[in-house]
Specification:
alpha/beta; Rossmann fold; DNA polymerase, domain 1; 2 domains
Length: about 260
């Protein structure tokens, strides 16, 4: 296995490709479930989110947000984005104002749920492979359920996922560990048999606080160097997930608090 490693924290490793001898042993028995964030992880939804929030703002006589402002808040969910938009426009952030703008945002989003939205490279192949290996697949996102379902259905992704926890599914959301713990309990596996894969601080913190190992994708909406809590592994493409799963099946110890990450010989 060809693996390069640049430690950015005590347990962070980067994974590249399998060699020919290992291509047939792609998935590990030690991992039973994969839990994914949605926006910035499986799907590039930035264009659709920007279109919806700015349509809502303009319709309410307010100034649109920049792409940078929207990107910084994608992982927090629609309510946080709406609250920021009101603050930016000098509006009072009270339940009535938030509800009004959020209703406009939802309406605009649902009218074009996959506007400028696309699945990231390697996602479909990865999901097909994981499903064929009988891994449980779940989504844990801070996005509202009605929007999540519209995006998944629009991109024909619904069929891959057994469990779906959204920002309004439970009384809490990421970075609270509750949503991930709920999924793990439903799956019926130990936390260490699950991976949380996401692109934000919320994903890494929620995973760590729930006892689930974390994988950060560096092609999403956050930068690795901006994280205050380090993930266990970093991927730059979903083609690298299979080597990671194979690697986990061959490691005797996933973590050793006294050492930095191990290479595989």
């Amino acid at each position: 296995m060809d693996i390069d490693k640049w430690p950015t924290g005590d347990f962070t490793e980067h994974f590249l490709s399998l060699n020919e001898e290992e291509e047939g042993n792609m998935l590990s028995r030690s991992v039973k479930a994969l839990i994914f964030d949605l926006d910035g992880t499986l799907v590039d939804t930035l264009g659709g989110i920007a279109n919806a929030i700015n349509c809502a703002l303009v319709a309410n006589g307010q100034e649109p947000l920049t792409i940078s402002e929207i990107t910084d808040r994608v992982g927090e969910g629609g309510t946080a984005l709406v609250e920021y938009a009101l603050e930016k426009n000098g509006q009072e952030v009270n339940p009535e104002c938030v509800s009004k703008l959020q209703a406009s945002y939802f309406q605009a989003y649902l009218s074009a749920p996959i506007y400028e939205t696309k699945v990231f490279p390697g996602v479909i192949t990865m999901l097909e492979s994981a499903q064929a290996q009988n891994l449980d697949l779940a989504i844990c996102t801070n996005k509202a359920e009605v929007l999540v379902k519209a995006v998944l259905e629009g991109l024909d992704l619904t069929r891959y996922f057994r469990f779906l926890v959204c920002g309004d599914s439970l009384p809490y959301r990421k970075p609270h560990p509750g949503p991930i713990k709920w999924i793990v309990n439903q799956i019926g596996e130990a936390p260490e048999a699950c991976l949380m894969i996401g692109d934000t601080e919320n994903d890494v913190c929620a995973a760590r606080n729930s006892g689930v190992r974390s994988v950060f994708v560096d092609f999403g909406y956050s930068k690795l160097e901006s994280l205050s809590s380090q993930p266990d592994w970093v991927l730059s493409h979903f083609d690298q997930l299979a080597p990671l799963l194979c690697h986990l099946g061959r490691r005797i110890s996933i973590r050793d608090n006294s050492q930095k990450p191990h290479s595989i010989i």
